[in-house]
Amino acid sequence: METQAFGLAHLWAQSDFVIRTVAAILLLMSVASWYLILACGLRQLRARRSEGAIDAFWKAPGLDAGLQRLAGQVPDSPFDALARQGAAAAEHLRHHGHRETLGGALDAGEFITRALRKSIAGSTARLESGLTTLASIGSTAPFVGLFGTVWGIYHALVNISASGLATLDKVAGPVGEALIMTAFGLFVAIPAVLAYNAVTRANRVELAELDAFAHDLHAWLSTGARIAPLPEHAPGAVDGTAVAEAA
User: Fold this and answer.
1) What pLDDT was estimated at residue 63?
2) Which of 3, 16, 43, 171 is the most exposed place for a label (fewest CB within 10 A)?
3) Alpha carbon distance 64, 57 (integer Å)
4) Is 239 a member of any domain?
5) Closest Cα to residue 129, out of 38, 36, 46?
6) How many domains does the chain have?
7) Domain for residue 125, yes or no?
8) What is the pLDDT of residues 120-157, one digit of tens each?
9) Spatial CB neighbours of 179, under 8 Å, sequence gap ≥ 6
10) pTM of the predicted structure, to 2 decimals
11) Is pLDDT larger for residue 243 or for residue 172?
12) What band does 194 get if pLDDT is binned at 50, 70 and 90?
């Protein structure tokens, strides 16, 4: 009895323009997804050095030295951009002061706040770059693969009907090959969805750290003093022995 070899090569050889187009789309989706995953992963690795860079910034003897430390440890990072934007705003106020213009009508605190918010908005846009693509790939790739499966099954059934041989081996092989397109769609979608969730969480943490740094930077540029961190345990707040002794 003659046997047929089924597999990816046979599927590609027997497929029509629609199946090949779907396969090409899934391949492009996979390449774009893994490119964004690697790019975001490398950026997150660089972002992990930000905590030590911020500590080095506040331990610097002056603002210029602190900016140099940030630029040396985390160059082109949101924290470096934020500090430089705030320093530029403070320098502008020192040299130009208040003028009879719409921007000059703001006081020093509001002027620095606007500069810091502008930097945070730009950094947020850069951090979220590519997330829409990852979300789109993760949500649409399974349906693209499913469309390829449906079309492949239809194409296989048409060929079987034309040949008049509806035996099990004639049906199971082409249908099984068509189901591979669904597997391809899931193979593309799952890494994209997992990467989207991981990058979104990492961005949320980084933006929270950036917002805290902006508050400290605003206080220092406005008043010349950094906001003191709260102590981990307030004296006598929740310590039962302290309360008993006080009683």
Assistant:
1) 82
2) 3
3) 10
4) no
5) 36
6) 1
7) yes
8) 999 888 888 889 999 999 999 999 999 988 887 887 77
9) 149
10) 0.73
11) 172
12) very high
Structure tokens at 156: 């296989």
One-letter amino acid of 54? I
Token readout for 127 is 């951090």
What's the rounded Cα separation, in Å, for the pair 160 and 166? 6
Supply the pLDDT for residue 6. 52
pLDDT tens for each residue of 15-37: 677 878 888 999 999 999 999 99
Task: Give the mean pLDDT of 222-228.
Answer: 67
Q: Distance between CA 157 and CA 177 in Å, rounded?
A: 12
The range of the structural domain enclosing residue 129 comes to 8-226
In a domain, 240, yes or no: no
Write the CB contacts of 169 (distance below 8 Å, at least 6 apart in sequence).
Answer: 3, 4
Q: Could you tell me if residue 247 is inside a domain?
A: no
Span 76-96, average pLDDT: 82
DSSP assignment of the chain: ------SHHHHHHH--HHHHHHHHHHHHHHHHHHHHHHHHHHHHHHHTTHHHHHHHHHTSSSHHHHHHHHHHHSTT-HHHHHHHHHHHHHHHHHHH---SSTTTTS-HHHHHHHHHHHHHHHHHHHHTTTHHHHHHHHHHHHHHHHHHHHHHHHHHHHHHHHHT---HHHHHHHHHHHHHHHHHHHHHHHHHHHHHHHHHHHHHHHHHHHHHHHHHHHHHHHHSSPPPPPPSS-TTTS-HHHHHHH-
